[in-house]
Amino acid sequence: MPGYKIGELAERTRTNAPTIRYYEEIGLLPRPERQEGNQRRYAEDDVRRLTFIRRCRAFGFSIDQVRALVELVQDRTRSCAEARDLAHTHLMDVRAKLRELKALEKSIAGFVATCDAQCAGGPGSECVILDELATIEPAGNRACCESAV
Amino acid sequence: MPGYKIGELAERTRTNAPTIRYYEEIGLLPRPERQEGNQRRYAEDDVRRLTFIRRCRAFGFSIDQVRALVELVQDRTRSCAEARDLAHTHLMDVRAKLRELKALEKSIAGFVATCDAQCAGGPGSECVILDELATIEPAGNRACCESAV
DNA sequence: TTACGAGTTCAAGTAACTTGAGGTTCAAGA
DNA sequence: TCTTGAACCTCAAGTTACTTGAACTCGTAA
């Protein structure tokens, strides 16, 4: 039997089999050939395509963005510059998220540190930090509440 | 009429009204009093509680984690140290995500730079980067594919 | 031949809300 | 007092990107 079974494709691309069927359903992957017993058989090209898709997903591109990228690769009339621009837009998004996450890291680290320094380990209702989290107007300039919300 | 209407609570806590109803439905917020026309009326305590919830969510805690935190605040028999530990666990998660995102940023930036330097802007099917993304075994040590997957 | 793992389909579940439909209530202006 | 329109109500379905479950068939090794 030539070609890969779904489990083999899954292994090669580190994807779950149901995810592969899902990609087929939403049209990200073409419907593959079936062997006599109705089982899917994939070719080398499917491995490449799915690898591409998974890698893009790992890069944080949304399914719709990946779809655009896949179509772009397929369509000889469209330029590589489009892919570059899509990636560039995505880069801006990632950088914004990175900034947020850094602020968040700082805040939570501050939370833990303050808790270590100021709380006696008593009931949660007396915890200075939990109390602060519930405060409507963030008092002063505590790093803890700066980036929240 | 004493108390806040849902729209007022929403404004004070920068939350959508449907989200407030949703939180009530899943038991994160207690069922509020209703006035004669069946409209919800909230007290100051609800503002505090929802502020707490929203802030925790902004900190990236999951609904389940927030639920644990809320219960912790309410239960006088449980210690503040539990909150600290929960936050600490969360901090580790955030740091892991931060590392991933940094690698991702580097990779996409590399993608864009390589595209600027090497692609002639021709058809996507000839783009060196798109081509690389579809390559099964990442060739060499290009930063582009290192962190993906 | 008989297990049993791997495959099949279809439906429903997941998180954390958002959106829509269709109907009431409230508050302010004429 | 009436009327209008914003804000409220409930219930259901949509969103994203899959995952999980049920109930069944197929392929292959002992």
UniProtKB/TrEMBL annotation, chains A, B:
<protein>
    <submittedName>
        <fullName>Transcriptional regulator MerR</fullName>
    </submittedName>
</protein>
<keyword id="KW-0238">DNA-binding</keyword>
<dbReference type="GO" id="GO:0003700">
    <property type="term" value="F:DNA-binding transcription factor activity"/>
</dbReference>
<dbReference type="GO" id="GO:0003677">
    <property type="term" value="F:DNA binding"/>
</dbReference>
<dbReference type="InterPro" id="IPR009061">
    <property type="entry name" value="DNA-bd_dom_put_sf"/>
</dbReference>
<dbReference type="Pfam" id="PF13411">
    <property type="entry name" value="MerR_1"/>
</dbReference>
<feature type="domain" description="HTH merR-type">
    <location>
        <begin position="3"/>
        <end position="72"/>
    </location>
</feature>
<dbReference type="InterPro" id="IPR047057">
    <property type="entry name" value="MerR_fam"/>
</dbReference>
<dbReference type="InterPro" id="IPR000551">
    <property type="entry name" value="MerR-type_HTH_dom"/>
</dbReference>
